[in-house]
Design a protein that fits this description.
This protein has about 90 residues and is α+β, with helices and mostly antiparallel strands. The chain contains four helices and three strands, in the order αβαββαα. It is globular and about 40 Å long.
């Protein structure tokens, strides 16, 4: 998703994306802090309502985070990768 250096994606994930575990997000590591600290009227999400799934980074050169909504049925990367998970089913049909 293009636009706003991850802010648009975080807002979409929080407000619009289906709450079925099929949508996950990866965005800038400072996004949770932007949501917590305020000061940006365009940040329309509460990072405490997301679930951290893991990182795609080794943290050697960068640190990325991967989160989903707290009420999503998938709570880990391993669960999302299972063949019988809602997320895996959604990925197969795209």
């Amino acid at each position: 998703m293009l636009g706003a250096h991850s802010l648009r994606a975080v807002n979409y994930l929080y407000k619009i994306a289906p709450k079925d575990g099929a949508t996950i997000g990866m965005f800038s590591r400072n996004m949770p802090l932007i949501g917590l600290l305020g000061g940006n009227a365009d940040a329309q999400f509460d990072p405490r309502r997301f679930t951290w799934l893991g990182s795609s980074s080794s943290f050697v050169n960068d640190a990325n985070i991967l989160i989903v909504r707290k009420d999503a049925p998938v709570k880990s990367i391993a669960e999302a990768c299972r063949q019988d998970s809602a997320a895996a089913g959604a990925w197969r049909h795209r």
